[in-house]
Amino acid sequence: MSAGLSIFVLVVLVIVGWFALGTHTNVRKGHRFLEWLQEGLPLLGEKTTLRWLGSSVVQLKIEKAHDPFRRAEVLVVLEPRDVPPLWLLSRLRGRRDLLIVRTELRTVPRQQVEILRPAAWSTRAIDREVNQLRWQPLSVDGQPFHVYSPPPVAEVRELISETDRCALPLVRVGVRQLNNALEVQWQLPAQPDSTSRTAFEAVQRLAQKV
What's the whole-model pTM score? Predict the structure, then answer.
């Protein structure tokens, strides 16, 4: 076997091995996060449909959402550990495992707001969007977020404080009157310090305040 062919075979084996290991790691992490979510999901609705979208995204659709929600969806978005170049690039861009709760409220929110962690990969496009919409930035002392909102700073502080009780690093709170949308994103540590129930209770409180 020539040196070139040997290197090619070695590279293929490394890529295939990495893909298998990365897929296994994500599936294992996904199942662990699903177990963690079981306690809190009933707060959103009665029935949940689960789908794996590839090996990096778990989608949970709530069939019958409780008030004040008309619809709800939970996403566990994992790092793309199965594709080495993509994983490395995403890590350099700040991508980490993420919990996303997307809801449609039954009533139109009284206010619109975007609270974004600027270093997060999932908020960069939203940051650009609100700048293009000419939303006014707010300065909230001591908060590591970009905040765009018509409401007073005191109300924004209150919204941020509602998410603190679940002990997950907040990435985004987005409230839009279009489609009555409320979305919350948190970074998922390997072992969350709080129960998933505290996260979904925070989403409920946010829905009542907006």
Answer: 0.88
